[in-house]
Amino acid sequence: MDRTPTTGAAPLPSSNGPAPLRFALPRPDLGPWRAGNTGTEGVWRFDTGRPGRHVLITALVHGNELCGAWALADLLEAGVRPQVGRLTLAFCNLAAFDRFDPQDHDASRFVEEDMNRQWSDERLDAPSTAERRRAAALRPFVREADWLLDLHSMHEPGAPLLLTGPHARNQQLARHMGAPGYVVADAGHRDGVRMRDYGRFGRPDVEEGDPQGTRSLLIECGFHGDPASRGVARDQCARFLAAAGTVQAQALPGWRLPDAPRQWVLEVTGPVVARSSGFCFTRPVAALEVIAQAGTVIGDNDGEPVATPYDDCVLVMPSTRQARAGVTVVRFARRSPL
Fold it and tell me: Where are the alpha helices (DSSP H) in the chain?
């Protein structure tokens, strides 16, 4: 049985219990940037008045994912302005961020419900929770954007992942950007729509049509508390803004990390959804681990064995830290060159 992660590093066990992980990334001071300049708290917009894409970069969709907040604050501190079109920067779930405690960081992921499952007009038209109300306030900016980069981080240590959805146009952009090394093609979550898939961003390529049309990426920059995640977020901002034509390629000196030596597509074939908080992995598992043999049992879902569905199955983002009924605890994927 091959338990080697695709990164080539030693396996990083996800926890059944789960044991605390050290949170070494400090909480950014958003005081200078909190108000925004749009009349919507935390949202900044810069408009050149010249034709060009409307580019949106978002952070803090989850209140404990600090790397994106650092990257947006760094962009604002650097005085970045678009050379064409419009640039919008949004600190999203500020109410959850205000609850952040490095000793219990999972508790500040959201206030009432996951903001990144609320992006359907049906839910946003009836904003019954703190997250839906905030998403409804942000909806006009998301609806107007042409290109979206949503900055996130992960419950467990692991290599950065760029989530493109099933759309070829987003995978082409990922290839153009040249990093990170792992690109995840997935269809989303059963319990709600992500911002990255909202409205025009979720349309199939054949409907989108216009090669100058929408692009939407979600970057998982590494473990929430790893200081390196801030560097990944900055790198992705620099690459995305240059690809969009919003800034020149040489802008933001020192932000870009080395290109990935090779990029892989991880085509997600299905999630494992917890039936309850009692879900557990029955053996050590690692982010991006390749399980050689189909039928290998890796977990227990309230008495039902969870086994890999095919040979050379890649485990994408295994974690029990948010395990409860309806939450995805791991995804199965096939790997191929991008």
Answer: 66-77, 94-97, 121-124, 130-144, 168-177, 205-208, 228-244
